[in-house]
Amino acid sequence: MAYKDKYPSVLLEDAVEAISSLPGVGKKGALRLALHLLKQPQENVHHFASAVNRLRDEVKYCRECSMISDGDVCSICSDRSRDHRTICVVESVRDVMSIENTGQYRGVYHVLGGIISPIEGIGPSDLTISRLVERVRDMVDLEGNAPSDVEIIFALSGDVEGETTAFYIYRQISGLGVRVSSIARGLGFGDDLEYADELTLGRSIVNRQEFRP
Amino acid sequence: MAYKDKYPSVLLEDAVEAISSLPGVGKKGALRLALHLLKQPQENVHHFASAVNRLRDEVKYCRECSMISDGDVCSICSDRSRDHRTICVVESVRDVMSIENTGQYRGVYHVLGGIISPIEGIGPSDLTISRLVERVRDMVDLEGNAPSDVEIIFALSGDVEGETTAFYIYRQISGLGVRVSSIARGLGFGDDLEYADELTLGRSIVNRQEFRP
C-alpha cells in the first residue's frame, strides 16, 4: 500500500480535501495544516471549527450598504458623525477595510459584492446596484438637500470589469444631478518613474494636478 | 471608526483570529480565507468545519506503530505481506507518508511522535520510545527468530536532535543483538557537486560505496 493516491486515514483524507479547497492552499499545505490541527488540544480545534461555522451562519449584511455587520445596520452607516451624503462604491468588504485603515475618508460606503464580469457570468442583478440606485434616489428626494450636495465616488479596480461596472452605475444615476467621481490614479507616492508601467505613467501625465508647494 | 484594531464584525474577527493561529497563515491571509469562506455555500463551510473536527475527535493511532489510522491497527501493520521484522523509526506521520510514496520500502514503521529536544522541552518519555523497545524485545523473544533477522532503521533528521534521539534508542536496543542501521546520506541523485554543502559532500566521500556499473 502506498500513499500516492491514498491516506493512512479516511478522516485525514477528508480533512486534507476540505482544507485544500481554500484558495492558495495546495494538497501539501493542507496536509501540513491537518497534521498541525491533529496535534492541538481538542478544544482549540473545536473553537477553530465553530468560529468558521458561526461566521458563515450568523454574520449579517448591513441593509444600507451591504457591508458585513453584527447588526442590521453596520457601525459605519449607524455612525451619525459621518458624512452620509458621500457614498464610496467598492467591490468588496475588504476594500472598505482598506479605505477605513487609511483614516482619510469620513463618508459612507456601498459594497457591490462583486463586479460585472460576463466571463465569470456576473451581471448587474447579481450585485447590489439596484439598492445603490435606490439609496441615491432617496438622498436626492430628501427635502432641503441639493442633488449636487450628494457625491458618489467609484473606488473600483482599474481594469475593464471595474470600468464597465462604474459606467453601468453612472448611466443609472447621471440623470439625478448628483456629483460622481472616481478615486485618483497615478504613480504611487514614493514610486520611481523608472519602474512605473506605461499606462499609469501616461495617465498620470494627462491627469496632472496643480503644483502646490 | 477605523479597522486598524477593529473588524466590521465580531464574528469575522473571531474567525480571523482562529484561522491565523494556523502555521504560516498571517492576519492578512486569514482575512482573505475568512472572506472566501463567507462567500461559499453554507453546506460547504459546515462540511469544512466538520471534517476538521472529526479528524481531531475520531482519528486513532495504531497500537503497534503509532501511525494515524482509522482502526486500532493501521493498514501497514495489519498487512501480512509486509516484512514485520524490519522497523523504520521516523519522527512523524508525514515521514511515513513520504517513505511510502517512494514505493521502496516493504517493512513496517514506528512513529516517535517527535524528537528529543531539550530546548523545546521534549524528553524521551514524551515520545513512543518505550513502546518501540517493547516491540523490539517481543520480536527478539519470538521463537525461531534469530535477533540478527530483526533490523531497526533510523530515518530521523540529520541534525543534533535527530542524532541524539537515534543514539538514545540505540543504547536501549543495542544489547538485544538486532541489526541497527540508518538511512544513507550523501549527495542527492542528480545533484551537482558544485552546489552541495561541505558537510554532505565530506560525508559522502567518507561513506563512499562500491562502484557497480
From TrEMBL, chains A, B:
GO terms for molecular function: DNA binding; zinc ion binding. The keyword Zinc applies. Residues 85-188 form the Toprim domain. One of its GO terms (biological process) is DNA repair. It comes from the Bacteria. Keywords: DNA damage, DNA recombination, DNA repair, Metal-binding, Zinc, Zinc-finger. Belongs to the RecR family. This is Recombination protein RecR.
